[in-house]
Each structure stands twice: as structure tokens, then as C-alpha cells.
Specification:
- The protein is mostly helical and 315 residues long.
- The protein has a domain at 2-215.
- It has 13 helices and 2 strands.
- A two-stranded antiparallel ribbon has the order 1-2.
- Helix 1 packs antiparallel against helix 10 (237-255) and helix 2 packs antiparallel against helix 3 (59-85).
- The radius of gyration is 21 Å and the shape is globular.
- The chain starts with a helix and ends in an 11-residue tail after the last helix.
């Protein structure tokens, strides 16, 4: 029971962090039709900006300043880069964002070096929130979950209950009409792209000190983010939320199971001979397969339901 409850809490915190990161990518794709390959790089920038501003102002101002700075970088990227190549189609957009990811990584190397930086959890949140059985649960993970849920509620309210959200949604389906009503549609798209990048930056602020802030962090989470978006359904925020929690649970729980497939088959009454050619392959433990399980889920989803859990055929 202790293992189950603690792992469940850890999977929730990791899943909500994945959603915070993937929600920005989903928002950009649903509004603009752009699959941003550099999205995880903005997550990395959020962590580094938080580290740098935290040295001067502390963690709490950095929590607000870093996402804003990442959003500004995103707005400049859309206005002077992505908008220029948009007229050449989706292939040009993919190549642009793919190259941008490498540019951002090299800029990080030039400014902060190739070694990890000392970005730590703030002292005000570095304590035990509660003790469950014999395990102490850190307050920072609970803070991450609180911010993620607050971001989810705020994003939902902005998109569905405010005039800004109505303009954004209308710009997606009827851009000519929105333009005729006097709204600047390109500016709306720029703000949407900046907002998506800012969400990735916020995820970097929260995840950078819990994990490791180093130049390879974008690569380590970038592929998982696309798995979340594909499994949840391209352009669906609800699907991204469900897929984030699902993949977070799969990865977190599977790491804790040190059972091989031979053990599982033995529990079902199937005994594998040690001289069998299958023995070596089936002796792999579930924890060893944990990194590949999300990608296996994505492949199965593309075979069974290509549009994802909550995606529509049009998206």
C-alpha cells in the first residue's frame, strides 16, 4: 500500500508536469496548425532563465519572470521567423522549428556551458509535507501539482469564458470574419504561440530544479511530449491531460516493478525452460522496459485509433 500510494502521488506530479509542457504544444497546434519541434527547447529556456533570474531576485520572482521571458522569445520567434516561412507550408515550418531547437541548444552551451547548473529547490519549499507510512513526501511535488492544476483551470476559463478566448477560437475557424470585425489575426496567432511557449517555460521553472537543468534536458523530454500529444489526440487539451496522467502513471509505476516477464508468466502457470531461446529475452524486467513503454503505447494508438483518445478525424 505504501508503494502504491507514494508511486501514485509521484505519477500524478510527473503527469501534471507533462501536461503543463504538452498543453502549450497542443494549444499551438490546435490554433495555428504548427507542430513545434522546438517546444521542449522553450522548456529548457524556462529552467535556465529561472536559474539566472533566481540568482538575482530569488525563486518566487523567477517563477513569474522566467515564463514571461520565454513567452517574449516565443513571440519574437513567431513574428520574425515562423510567420515568414508559414507561406511555404508545413514542411518549411517543421524544418524551421527543427533547426531552431539546435540553435537554442547551442546558445545555451555558449552562455551556461555544457555542464549542469546549480538550480535547486528553494529553501521555503524544501521540507516534508507529510509522512505516509515510512515515506516522507516533499512539499515541492505538491506545489508542482497545485500550480499545474491552477494552470489547467486558468487555461480552461480563459479559452471558454473570456472574450479573449472567444477571439482566439474564432480566429481558428473563421479568420476572415475575425479580421473583418477589426481584430488583428496575425497578432492573435503570435500571442497564442507566445502563450504556448510561456507554458513550456513554466514547466521548465518547476521541473528544472526537481530534475537536472542541463543542455540535454530538452532532448530527454521532447520525445515524451510528442507521445502525449499523439496519444491524447492532436489539438485536444482534454486528450493531452488524459494522456499525460496515463503516461506519467505508466512510466512511474513500471520503474518500481522489478519483476521479469518470466516471473509474470510463472504466476500465470507458464514455466519457461532456462535452455529455451526465449529465456534471455523474457528475463528482462518491467523496470528495464519503462523507457520504451510510452512509445509502444503511441505505436499501438496509431494502429488502433490514429486520431488519438480525444482527437477528431479532422485534426
Amino acid at each position: 500500500m505504501e508503494f502504491f500510494l507514494i508511486t501514485l502521488l509521484n505519477s500524478l506530479s510527473y503527469g501534471l508536469l507533462l501536461f503543463m509542457l504538452s498543453s502549450g504544444l497542443t494549444l499551438i497546434f490546435s490554433m495555428m496548425g504548427v507542430l513545434n519541434f522546438a517546444h521542449a527547447s522553450f522548456y529548457m529556456l524556462g529552467a535556465y532563465f529561472a536559474y539566472q533570474t533566481g540568482l538575482v531576485f530569488g525563486f518566487w520572482p523567477a517563477l513569474f519572470l522566467a515564463p514571461i521571458l520565454v513567452g517574449v522569445v516565443g513571440a519574437i520567434t513567431e513574428r520574425y521567423g515562423l510567420r515568414k516561412v508559414h507561406k511555404f507550408g508545413h514542411v518549411a515550418e517543421l524544418l524551421f522549428t527543427f533547426g531552431l531547437a539546435y540553435v537554442i541548444e547551442e546558445v545555451v552551451h555558449l552562455i551556461w556551458g555544457r555542464a549542469p547548473v546549480d538550480y535547486r529547490i528553494p529553501e521555503s519549499l524544501n521540507f516534508t509535507l507529510f509522512t505516509l507510512f515510512n515515506t516522507q513526501y516533499p512539499a515541492y511535488r505538491a506545489f508542482m501539482m497545485l500550480v499545474s492544476v491552477g494552470m489547467l483551470v486558468s487555461l480552461y476559463l480563459v479559452l471558454t469564458k473570456t472574450r479573449i478566448g472567444l477571439i482566439v477560437q474564432a480566429s481558428l475557424t473563421h479568420p476572415e470574419m475575425v479580421q473583418a470585425l477589426g481584430h488583428n489575426v496575425p497578432r492573435v496567432f503570435m500571442l497564442v504561440f507566445a502563450g504556448g511557449c510561456a507554458l513550456a517555460g513554466l514547466a521548465g521553472v518547476l521541473g528544472g530544479n526537481l530534475f537536472i537543468t542541463e543542455p540535454g534536458m530538452a532532448f530527454s523530454v521532447g520525445s515524451i511530449v510528442f507521445v502525449v500529444v499523439v496519444v491524447g489526440g492532436m489539438g485536444s487539451l482534454v486528450g493531452a491531460f488524459i494522456a499525460s496522467l496515463l503516461i506519467g502513471s505508466i512510466q512511474t509505476f513500471s520503474v518500481g516493478f522489478d519483476y521479469s516477464f518470466i516471473d509474470l508468466m510463472a504466476a500465470l502457470g507458464v514455466i519457461i525452460d532456462s535452455n529455451s531461446s526465449w529465456y534471455a529475452g523474457l528475463s528482462i524486467t518491467i523496470s528495464q522496459t519503462a523507457p520504451v513503454l510510452p512509445y509502444l503505447l503511441m505505436v499501438l494508438m496509431l494502429i488502433v485509433r490514429p486520431r488519438g483518445l480525444m482527437g477528431t478525424r479532422e485534426t
